[in-house]
Amino acid sequence: MSAESKKLAYNETFDCIQCGTCLPACPTYKTMGKETQSPRGRINLVKMAAEGKIDLDKLKEPIDLCLGCRACERVCPTNVHYGRILESAKEALYEKEKKSGSPLKRFEGNLFYKQVFPKKQMMDTAGTLLWFYQKSGLKTVAHKTGITKWLPDNLETFEKVTPDLSSPGQRHHRPKKMEPHQKPLYKIGFFTGCIMDTMFDRINDLSMKLLSACGCEVIAVEGQKCCGALHSHGGRSEQARELARQNIESFEKESLDYIVNNAGGCGAMLSEYPHLFQDDDEWRERAERFSERSVDISVILSKLKLPIKKKINRRITYQPSCHMTNVQKVVAEPVRLIRMVCGPCFHELDEPNFCCGSAGIYNVVNFDESMKILDVKMADVKDKHPDFIVTTNPGCLLQMKAGIEREHLTDRVQVIHLVELLAEACDID
Amino acid sequence: MQTEADQQLKQIIHDPGRILFREEDLVSYGYDASFGFYKPDLVVQAASAEEVAGILKLANRYKIPVTPRGQASSLSGGPLPVKGGIVLDLSQWNDKLIIDSEDMVAVVSPGVVTAQIDKAASKYGLMYPPDPGSSQVSTIAGNLAENSGGPRCLKYGVTKDYVIGLKVVTPQGEIIHTGGRTVKNVTGYDLTKLIVGSEGTLGVITEATLRLIPRPPASRTLMVIFDHFVDSGTMVTRVLTSGILPSKIEMMDQASIQAVEAYQPLGLPTDAEAILLIELDGHPAAIADELEKIREIAANSGARKVTVAESDDDARELWKARKLVSPAIVRNKPTKISEDATVPRSKIPEFCSRLAQIKKKYQIDLVVFGHAGDGNLHPNIICDKRNKEEMKVVEKAVEAIFQAALDLGGTLSGEHGIGTMKSAYMPWEFGPQELDMMKRIKTAWDPNNILNPSKIFPVPGQKLVLSE
Ligand SMILES: Cc1cc2nc3c(=O)[nH]c(=O)nc-3n(C[C@H](O)[C@H](O)[C@H](O)COP(=O)(O)OP(=O)(O)OC[C@H]3O[C@@H](n4cnc5c(N)ncnc54)[C@H](O)[C@@H]3O)c2cc1C
Ligand code: SF4
Ligand code: SF4
Questions:
Q1: Do A34 and B25 make contact, defined as CB atoms within 8 angstroms?
Q2: Range(s) for CATH 3.30.43.10 in chain B?
Q3: pLDDT digits (tens, 9 = 90+) for B428-460
């Protein structure tokens, strides 16, 4: 067995009894229609690769095409740790690429070239342009966080033709700390998140104001970094671990009741920090202390009394973040909050747990597949005739915007973050 | 495969995306939910009867084995391509699901997921009763091929009781229609019922006409807890002879109760030897009346406690215990051998005591739960397939379970099918004449033995092998 294959989570694959319960939950199985692109298929491939029965390379495409949404994990009757199996496969593949000497940059550049560049004509349509514009903002984020190292250089080409996003330097200055008038109910460390802070800093501001208006002391802890989710999902565990250590250290400096974030994907990563330190007792314990206190903003807001000033009388639907549902297991709270401010105008999706196809940078590297998944989602959305689509994660927010562009619904439907909806109801801006 | 055959295949299936031959694809169609792995040479995803007919004609010409496959949730090895050749994937052919509320029938493509049929029927106040535990996953053709059952079958019967017409492609590639659209139909041999339960060895189902019934307006669930296992058996018999036919009677033994409590505490009594979950359906007034009678029977059968669900949420909460059995029992060891040997209803208590003896004799981790109402208990053996020694013992214990069921006048399989898993034991249940008659039917339909070979019929010297 090669050193890379040893990285595969072989033992975890035995928990899979191949019952197939996960098949209907898997977006890629639905859109691609192949067992190879299903959770059961992928687990089998990892197992066979670990046993040396197939070459590690055979895993590459099915693993690349997995959204990592982990809907399979939520429905699995035997609690297969699919997330770990997936991450182990990504790491093994990454290690192999690195070792095989093929310049990683070129390989990823190729991938990007193959998947996105030839579709330039497609991107020219109004729908994809916006998506593309928004996504290329990722590059700005990438600079800040050091992900650039492994993002394709070609992204630069695209960046040139797109308007600049506000750089961190240009952004207005948010107070580092917000204190309520009375004795604070909770002392909260706010996790700003790199994408949220680059592209949606207004939502971060509103989040802190909301928490403060509910009686909390809120600190935007200094020295915090990107959560590391994109690195981890890209098989770069060592980089993810480094970011985790820096975050844990930064938040340890304050004595906090909670560490609050407003991005489902980041929150999921923060909640799984202990997984990164399986072989390191000291850091695992520190990570456990961190993760225990890390929660999504909807969880905290549900515990507090929101100063609601008005009802939002518009048709609303909600696209939950997969990682919030399947990893953080936060399901009821956002719905409860939405119902609180908009009552009967809330129309739940038929299949809320079906991924929107954003999935980190999936929609950049697997554009076609992502759009097929988005089309399934949009059919469900359109059926609800919403004025607002509420989301809880920046990736989903962008993807849903791309979705309404593709469906030519921009003048009728708006995509907003849950925090924006709540802030509006509380007259906070 | 010969390149010539390859060429011809491309003319039958125009969309090259539905012909799979890369290694990663082939190995993804080599398993089901049971044991064993066989790599096919090719996977074809068919989408019309004409395509299926073309493939079977081709397969006959070149003597290529063809194995139909739904979602591969079979627990008996049915969709495994034991002899290689072509896996004919029908799971993606799911475009037709028509409910005709006047004729009270559903017409469906083979790949339609079972639960979708009942969901569609419910919009018209109708019901498709067969509800295998896998109904959210399994395809209707897979259900038809295995003649699947489920909890609701106690009152409503199994899959074969609801199919009235089929469109089938014979192994030689002829498209035939069996049955029709009427509930009553005695014209000619009943080929429909012959195809049902034939495990994909006599023909490929390409369309089915299913009978629907009015949906009962209400249902109620109750949980009955017993100190002594035998009392639960007594209660089942008494209920069923009292003029009440519940829609479901499910049983959990002490081992499964304890496993569930250790997995997710629901407040079940771990010292109880058995729990019965009973669901009544029908007119609300009738249910209320039956409920009182059942309470009485429970009290007279030595039940410790009866809990009646007051709302749908309550009922879901009660059923949760049964739902959690599967995940709960595989917590310590990963492998679950799900047996479905079935005995006449009256022999349930005796079967259970034989199971207890087997558990003790072989020192195996044996959990018993399932459809107590119709004698289709599911003894589950929990083990680790990586442990060869352990699996040898498990193989012996499984044989002992088969023997016990047959001794009591039962059968090897109530609903999962024979496939590869139980074929070695067919001679235990049938004499040579009976097996020969079945074989002659198979040969008449499939003279070249190309459709799903190596299933159902025993191969000389074959034994159950559960280790890898
Ligand atoms: C968790 C779990 C719970 C289960 N619970 C139950 C239960 O309660 N009751 C029960 O009866 N079973 C149960 N099963 C077993 C299984 O789900 C059923 O046998 C089901 O009918 C298989 O359907 P499938 O679509 O997965 O078919 P597959 O497993 O793919 O195939 C089953 C058989 O059907 C044949 N076949 C498939 N499609 C066609 C076609 N178009 N034409 C001809 N032959 C075809 C195959 O060759 C094979 O022999 C359970 C399985 C699991 C994993
Ligand atoms: S639901 Fe779980 S056990 Fe079943 S096939 Fe999927 S991963 Fe495996
Ligand atoms: S993580 Fe999502 S896309 Fe990947 S296998 Fe699971 S359900 Fe499918």
A1: yes
A2: 3-89
A3: 999 999 999 999 999 999 999 999 999 999 987
| B55-112 pLDDT, tens digit each | 999 999 999 999 999 999 999 999 999 999 999 999 999 999 999 999 999 999 999 9
Is the minimum distance from the CB of A228 to ligand 3 under 6 angstroms?
A: no
Amino acid identity at B216: P
Q: Take atom 35 of ligand 1 and give the residue whose Cα is closest.
A: B200
The pLDDT tens digits for B242-264 are 999 999 999 999 999 999 999 98
The length of chain A is: 429
| Residues whose CB is less than 8 angstroms from the CB of residue B51 and which lie 6 or more positions away in sequence, other chains included | B12, B13, B44
The CATH code that applies to domain B97-214 is: 3.30.465.10
pLDDT above 90 for B366: yes
Rounded CA-CA distance A127/B418 in Å is: 53
Answer whether A19 contacts ligand 2 (Cβ < 6 A): yes
| Residue B62 to residue B450: CA distance in whole angstroms | 10
Contact state of B334 with A15 under an 8 Å Cβ cutoff = yes
Atom of ligand 3 nearest to the CA of A73: 6
- Sign of the torsion formed by the C-alpha atoms of A32, A37, A39 and A44: positive
Q: Check CB contact under 8 Å for A78 and B33.
A: no
Tell me the pTM: 0.90
Q: How far is the CA of B415 from the centre of ligand 1 (A)?
A: 9
CATH topology for B218-407?
A: Vanillyl-alcohol Oxidase; Chain A, domain 3 (3.40.462)
The answer, for A32 touching chain B at a CB cutoff of 8 Å, is no
CB nearest A45 (choices: B28, B113, B384) = B28
Q: Are A212 and A180 in contact (CB under 8 A)?
A: yes
Q: Is A23 in contact with B33 (Cβ distance < 8 A)?
A: no
Separation CA B26–CA A53 (nearest Å)? 13
Which fold, A5-101?
Fumarate Reductase Iron-sulfur Protein; Chain B, domain 2 (1.10.1060)
Whether A26 lines ligand 2, by a CB cut-off of 6 Å, is no
- CA–CA–CA angle A276, A282, A285 (5° rounding): 70
Q: Is the pLDDT of residue A147 over 50?
A: no
A367: Cα separation from own chain's centroid: 17
Closest by Cβ to B28, choosing from A14, A17, A35: A35
- Dihedral angle, C-alpha A230, A236, A238, A239, nearest 10 °: -40
- Closest by alpha carbon to B455, among B427, B417, B429, B403? B417
Distance CA A386, CA A346 (A): 9
